[in-house]
Write a structure and sequence with these properties.
With about 80 residues, this protein is mainly α. The chain contains three helices and no strands. The chain has a domain of about 45 residues. The protein is elongated and about 60 Å long.
Length: about 80
């Protein structure tokens, strides 16, 4: 059985205390309310650069077109 959190939309992530203290020093005067706010900001930034798609594998036709284009640009040998 799991404990119910007071804020079900949040979870706890554990980091080493020395890292927490270092982050706390780094953000002093930087406008962040807490280490948590800073870490959430950084993680959102990192995650936003990664795309998650439901793209299906390329069809044979699409692969052939890409290979032909690469061949015409000189990246693949004629053949």
């Amino acid at each position: 059985m799991t404990k119910r959190s007071k804020a079900p939309d949040k979870v706890t992530i554990k980091i080493p205390r020395p890292l927490y203290e270092k982050i706390s020093q780094v953000i002093e005067g930087a406008g962040y309310n807490s280490v948590t706010d800073f870490v959430v900001y950084i993680l959102r930034d990192i995650v936003s650069t990664h795309r998650v798609t439901d793209h299906e594998p390329y069809s044979e036709e699409e692969l052939t077109a890409v290979k032909e284009r690469l061949r015409s640009l000189g990246y693949l040998p004629e053949g």
